[in-house]
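Lab notes, practical 5.
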Amino acid sequence: MKVLAAMSGGVDSAVAAARAVEAGHDVTGIHLALSRNPASYRSGARGCCTIEDSNDARRAADVVGIPFYVWDLSDRFHADVVEDFMDEYAAGRTPNPCLRCNEKIKFAAVLDRALGLGFDAVATGHYARLETGADGLVELHRAADHAKDQSYVLGVLTQQQLRHSLFPLGGTPKPEVRREAEARGLRVADKPDSHDICFVADGDNAGWLREKLGDRAPNHGGDVVDDATGEVLGTHEGTYAFTIGQRRGLRLGRPAPDGRPRFVLDIEPVSGTVRVGPREGLTVDRLTADRPRWCGTVPSHLEGTVQLRAHGAEHRATVRVLGADGGPGGERVEIDLLDPAQGIAPGQAAVVYDGSRVVGSATITATARVRTGS
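Output from the prediction step:
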């Protein structure tokens, strides 16, 4: 096959490209230039879109012995990922930009262009496995190395995208990948993994949002109030500085009467009100979600598990897929958690699993506490 290897500049994508070559594919390496100003993105081996990363990817392609190109997708990335990130926080939600990047950039814009250029598949260094099911559909499964499993952020991929994807590292533990990189002479063998959000240069999300959003309504200042009593405990400069479950940085000045820590329980971006309360106020066992994306056949009812954040725990759950009006259809997903969760915010992705297989994902719109005795 003709394979396009997406090379971020890290060890995983470099070894994935090398394995694709070793498997007999005709491989071309590409690096995605995602920043209009690379110096403003994370550097020091902590990002995936800097000039430093581009140079690391080029050197790795030279060692592997494949052609290498840089594709400028910075405008598309800014519109589909960065602007989406700002809009979601402005609406009081907590987005996952890496998941959105996979959906809109790596497996949409890149794959579409690759197919248009005559490539058969795109290979990446993600830790996930692909299998062909008894029904002939390509299934997305968790990686063998569960500590590095990235199937959560790939839960947005459709069957068409999975059919044109390769994940060469899915069956390999991360330490073995690093040893293989060293044996292949790849200088990125010891390069640290990327962390946090690549386009927030210093890791200060709240500061970045304050600078970018400014006085954009409804992110004006407001009150921090006690969820139980309604008492105003303090003020803030913008709801974008908060997320559900947050404990630090509340700047309340005085402890709760019982001495227990307070957590952010709710964010009301229109009024600017941030509600805080005890940890137990974070517990939820019912989720409503929209914008579902299914990896294969659309389910109507499923007893399985859901994962609610990257590298988070699995929760046993009952999943129902409904129409917008509550009847048959596929626009709305309702999830009952048999294992309650804490600190779940609208905007997060709920990724549905059947065993190790990813069924699909949806974006959480609301949470609720139903079984108060559980």
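Observations recorded by the TA: Residues 42-46 have pLDDT under 50 and may be disordered. The chain has three domains: 2-190, 214-277, 282-368.
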